[in-house]
Automatic annotation (TrEMBL), chain A:
Domain Nitrogenase/oxidoreductase component, chain residue ranges per copy: 72-473
Alphabetical list of Gene3D superfamilies matching this protein: Nitrogenase molybdenum iron protein domain
Pfam families, A to Z: Oxidored_nitro
UniProt GO molecular function: ATP binding; iron-sulfur cluster binding; metal ion binding; nitrogenase activity
EC number: 1.18.6.1
Keyword ATP-binding included in the entry's annotation: yes
Species annotation: Aminobacter anthyllidis
Lineage, broadest ranks: Bacteria, Pseudomonadati, Pseudomonadota, Alphaproteobacteria, Hyphomicrobiales
Subunit field text: Tetramer of two alpha and two beta chains. Forms complex with the iron protein (nitrogenase component 2).
Cellular-component GO terms for this entry: molybdenum-iron nitrogenase complex
Keywords tagged on the record: ATP-binding, Iron, Iron-sulfur, Metal-binding, Molybdenum, Nitrogen fixation, Nucleotide-binding, Oxidoreductase
Protein's recorded name: Nitrogenase protein alpha chain
Summary of the function given for this chain in its UniProt record: This molybdenum-iron protein is part of the nitrogenase complex that catalyzes the key enzymatic reactions in nitrogen fixation.
Lineage: superkingdom: Bacteria
InterPro entries recorded: Nase/OxRdtase_comp1, Nase_comp1_asu, Nase_comp1_CS, Nase_Mo-Fe_asu
Length: 501, 519
């Protein structure tokens, strides 16, 4: 698949050894299991080169005091899964901070009249005070729901996103939700995503998925005439419009996207999901649970796909088309052919500016593997990658993407990431806002790969052009050549020349 | 029906989200999505509801809310503690409790300052919720100490640790006994429950925690004429603290800025990542016990800290974010009175230049109406400066404003004829502000980036002068305080007024008779 290259495994092994030597013994022992260098164990295995659990341990508690980059279950539920559902009011239930820091930060694009019929970029909070902790917050929650009904009558429903204290003080948000749902005849979804649950965002995704199963599905009679080509897109949060750049392709090949979860989604799109013919999962990590449930209960098949970069887009479109038969397959070939000139032009323009440039990634969800081929489409080289909150099945899926010698880091610490970057000095790092500025201080170009650095979309053919442009503008900006004052002696290791060529 | 689409994207001119989704292919796709799959409310109902939210009737319901908070202009205590810790030499913030919180504080600060923000968590999970987080503290302090080589670790708490009642004093002592850090290593702490007060209180708690840690049990020998200055939580600390120090240096005052994050949040790009930079030296914090007086630049950020300074025998005084002419006058005269140092002629020239600028522009500012929101001291300062320019602060709102603040604001507003029609909104949020702006409109809105939603909905031009500013870059690198800061604020307000006027008068052959070259 894609570009052929091998990374410097020996250097990477040495870097792992070096960082581990700096930890107290107990922590070193624990961190060791999360760091690895990719080796091809099974040459004959060919395509089926999955990483096994022995390679990298994952989904384990972070070590205290090491500066993990991870978030919490609330971030996984409110921030990722529920927050983008646009016609619902999502209450950050507890103290003010969680809702405040996550307010408008994930760029879940949507169309609607904010504050009237859509509510994504608003911060609704119960703003817990000491008395709420002492006496419980259920009464307050009831009142909040009444006030939402009064001030926002066009909201399609409400979700209650629990912050840490809720589970600790023994509030019964389920009882409140049940009571108020009946009273207002509206969907009200209590979510037990307290931040201390689990080891990362990941459990929050799972809890949020379960809440869809338990509090949305099978509740109302859904009047909907389904068709033979109905699909749900699951796990596309429409960061910078990704879901739109994907939808346009799926529609072009003749499918009907009856629901998109959960970017730009209305509650109706979630309710009717069980009527679709196929679930297409983009972010496997955050939404596989509900897809498995729909498969079990409603017999809906699911399929993973990857819309980053032309190689994966083509493979995914063909794979999806195969599910629906010759008519769709034929259209798909036409669509692929239609976009081929765009792809060729993008690669012709940007490949010469990016070829051979090395990239390190540290992201969440699916991106640490899914974007790899998009870089390789531009002849860029992935030297290291890692996940914030992956499970074993993510690393299994990663084996198909990474080359020999690639450095792998799970739940990387601030210290490790800094040392790895220093040791490898890649041409580009793709990670999050907390990582952006330290990396740039070192003189290394950076792109935020959670928020697309306020650009995007990156999905689909339209997105690939933007992706290529952004990587070019990051790497080939003249600022990287200005870091050193010319009157300073060049006795230190010189910065890599990164000026535009 | 077969869709025939052309292609909006091209390699020659790459369109990203803003223009891309305005292309006809996407507009059609989104319109059909809405119609066929979203089950939307009819347009008329949406329009009617939208209009309803602009009415006095809606305002009354909105302001009568008792439980629901929408778009508040405040954050929680530990954010203030993390910011405070960043103002001390080689200090790592260690927040005891759930780990997601720390990811949030770091992101929040980085998005505003466009700078690294370091802090660690004790990463407590379910088992710690049951058994307490002592083990997390013991392991965590050891790891932080070893990996990040700090001179000091400042411990604060998330609400999880507060709800289960972890006791920092004994936990830290335990950790020291178990050898996590050396016994004489500095680990000041502050309990910072998110369900009490706001980030300004977390700031207060952490600064007090640091002072107590170094001052308790030490003998104080007063050094006459020396001053401590505590800036308070300030998104403009980079510009402000440097301007402040310039003024004090010009006066020749012996002073210590306690909690100075100006270098930490403004490190240079030269190839080296500095995890720690600048900050108040630990030796200076110790020495600050002997100062004659401690001055706080933001009263509501330092209520407990100043109380403590009083207890140890220091004189104290507090200000409300000294910005503009008279507030800066008062601050400098206080410094002069304590230090015995004259205010030099250079500073009087600065003052004169600010007044000169205000006089030059007064015709554009006189009678302008403002809505101002933000932290209590900032709102006080802005309202005062606005009145100095002949403006009228119509709405003054602080979500974290107390009844004492409200009373103080009312007193300030009553002192000027320009404050006669002003209203003070303590504890209200930005959804309340939305109703206020619709029912009693103003010319300008002063606040932070969150105000952009109010600008969109109500058409009131927004001036960003308050933390956090996410969607404009580098403003925090310039001062707001002092006379020079006043000049900056004045220019920012004027630019907004002139830009709006130019926009309104730029229609060729229709309004451009007023598109004046000189204004």
């Amino acid at each position: 698949m894609g570009l052929d290259y091998e990374n410097d495994g020996a250097l990477h092994a040495k870097l792992i050894e070096d960082v581990l030597s700096q930890y107290p013994d107990k922590a070193a022992k624990r961190r060791k299991k999360h760091l690895s260098v990719v080796t091809s164990k099974d040459e004959a295995g060919g395509e089926d080169k999955g990483l096994s659990e022995c390679d990298v341990k994952s989904n384990i508690k972070s070590i205290p005091g090491v500066m993990t980059i991870r978030g919490c279950a609330y971030a996984g539920s409110k921030g990722v899964v529920w927050g983008p559902v646009k016609d619902m009011v999502h209450i950050s239930h507890g103290p003010v901070g969680c809702g405040q820091y996550s307010w408008s930060q994930r760029r879940n694009y949507y169309v609607g009249t904010t504050g009237i019929d859509t509510f994504v970029t608003m911060q609704f909070t119960s703003d817990f005070q000491e008395k709420d902790i002492v006496f419980g917050g259920d009464k307050k929650l009831e009142k909040i729901i009444d006030e939402i009904e009064d001030l926002f009558p066009l909201s399609g429903g409400i979700s209650v996103q629990s912050e840490c204290p809720i589970g600790l003080i023994g509030d019964d948000i389920e009882a409140v939700s049940r009571k108020k749902a009946k009273e207002h005849e509206k969907t009200i979804v209590p979510v037990r995503c307290e931040g201390f649950r689990g080891v990362s965002q990941s459990l929050g995704h799972h809890i949020a998925n379960d809440a869809i199963r338990d509090w949305v599905f099978d509740k109302d009679d859904v009047a909907f005439e389904s068709g033979p080509y109905d699909v749900n897109v699951v796990g596309d949060y429409n960061i910078g419009g990704d879901a739109w750049a994907s939808r346009i392709l799926l529609e072009e090949i003749g499918l009907r996207v009856v629901g998109n979860w959960s970017g730009d989604a209305t509650l109706a799109e979630i309710e009717r999901a069980p009527k679709a013919k196929l679930n297409l999962i983009h972010c496997y990590r955050s939404m596989n649970y509900i897809c498995r449930h729909m498969e079990e209960k409603y017999g809906i098949a699911w399929m993973e796909y990857n819309f980053f970069g032309p190689t994966q887009i083509e493979a995914s479109l063909r794979n999806i088309a195969k599910h629906f038969g010759p008519e769709i397959e034929e259209k798909t070939e036409k669509v692929i052919a239609k976009y081929r000139p765009l792809v060729d032009a993008v690669i012709a323009k940007y490949r010469p500016r990016l070829e051979g440039r090395t990239v390190m990634l540290y992201v969440g969800g699916l991106r640490p593997r899914h974007v790899i081929t998009a870089y390789e489409d531009l002849a860029m080289v992935i030297v290291g990658t890692g996940y914030e909150f992956a499970h074993n099945d993510d690393y299994q899926r990663t084996g198909h993407y990474v080359k020999n010698g690639t450095l792998l880091y799970d739940d990387v610490t601030g210290y490790e990431l800094e040392k790895f970057i220093e040791g490898i000095r890649p041409d580009l790092v793709g990670s999050g806002i907390k990582e952006k500025y330290p990396v740039q201080k070192m003189g290394i170009p950076f792109r935020q790969m959670h928020s697309w650095d306020y650009s995007g979309p990156y999905h689909g053919y339209d997105g690939f052009a933007i992706f290529a442009r952004d990587m070019d503008l990051a790497i080939n900006n003249p600022v990287w050549g200005l870091y050193r004052a010319p009157w300073k002696k060049m006795k230190d290791a010189p910065l890599r020349a990164v000026a535009a060529e | 029906m077969e869709k025939v689409t052309t292609m909006p994207q091209s390699a020659e001119k790459v369109l990203d989200h803003a223009p891309l989704f305005r292309e006809p292919e996407y507009r059609q796709m989104l319109a059909e999505k809405k119609l066929n799959f979203e089950c939307p409310h009819p347009d008329q109902i949406v329009t009617d509801q939208r209009e309803l939210t602009k009415t006095w009737e809606y305002r009354e319901k909105n302001l009568a809310r008792e439980a629901l908070v929408i778009n508040p202009a405040k954050a929680c205590q530990p954010l203030g503690a993390v910011f405070a810790a960043a103002g001390f030499e080689r200090t790592m913030s260690f927040v005891h409790g759930s780990q997601g919180c720390v990811a949030y504080y770091r992101s929040h600060l980085s998005r505003h300052f466009k700078e690294p923000s370091s802090a660690v968590s004790s990463s407590m999970t379910e088992d710690a919720a049951v058994f307490g987080g002592l083990k997390n503290m013991v392991d965590g302090l050891a790891n932080t100490y070893k990996l990040y080589d700090p001179k000091m670790i400042a411990v604060s708490t998330t609400c999880m640790a507060e709800v289960i009642g972890d006791d920092l004093r004994s936990f830290i002592e335990n950790a020291k006994n178990e050898g996590s850090v050396p016994c004489d290593f500095d680990v000041p702490f502050a309990h910072t429950p998110a369900f009490v007060g706001s980030h300004v209180d977390g700031y207060d708690g952490m600064v007090k925690g640091v002072l107590e840690h170094f001052w308790k049990g030490s003998e104080r020998s007063q050094a006459a004429g020396t001053i401590n200055i505590i800036p308070g939580f300030d998104g403009f600390c980079v510009g402000n603290n440097r301007e402040l120090k310039r003024l004090l240096d010009l006066m020749g005052v012996t002073y210590t800025v306690i909690q100075d994050a100006s270098d930490q949040f403004d490190t240079p790009s030269d190839g080296e990542y500095r995890m720690y930079d600048g900050g108040t030296k630990i030796e200076d914090v110790k020495g600050a016990l002997n100062a004659e007086a401690t001055l706080s630049l933001q009263h509501y950020n330092t209520r407990k800290t100043l109380e403590y300074c009083n207890e140890v025998g220091q004189a104290t005084a507090s200000f409300h974010y000294p910005l503009g002419v008279q507030a800066t006058d008062e601050f400098l005269m206080k410094v002069s009175a304590i230090s015995g140092q004259e205010i030099p002629e250079t500073i009087r020239m600065d003052r004169g230049r600010l007044v000169d600028a205000m006089a030059d522009s007064q015709s554009w500012l006189h009678g302008k109406k403002y809505a101002i929101y933000g932290d209590p001291d900032f709102v006080y300062a802005m309202a005062r400066f606005v009145m100095e320019t002949g403006g009228e602060p119509t709405h003054c709102l602080a979500t974290n404003g107390t009844s004492t603040w409200e009373a103080e604001m009312k007193e300030l507003l009553a002192s000027s004829s320009f404050g006669q029609d002003a209203q003070v909104w303590a504890g209200k949020d930005l959804w309340a502000m939305r109703s206020l702006l619709f029912t009693e409109p103003v010319d300008l809105l002063i606040g932070n980036s969150y105000g952009k939603y109010l600008e969109r909905d109500t058409g009131t031009p927004l001036i960003r002068l308050m933390f956090p500013i996410f969607d404009r870059h580098h403003h925090h690198r310039f001062p707001l305080m002092g006379y020079q800061g006043g000049l900056r604020v004045l220019t920012t307000i004027l630019d907004k007024i002139f830009d709006k006027l130019d926009r309104e008068t730029s229609e060729t052959g229709v309004t451009d008779y007023s598109y004046d070259l000189t204004r």
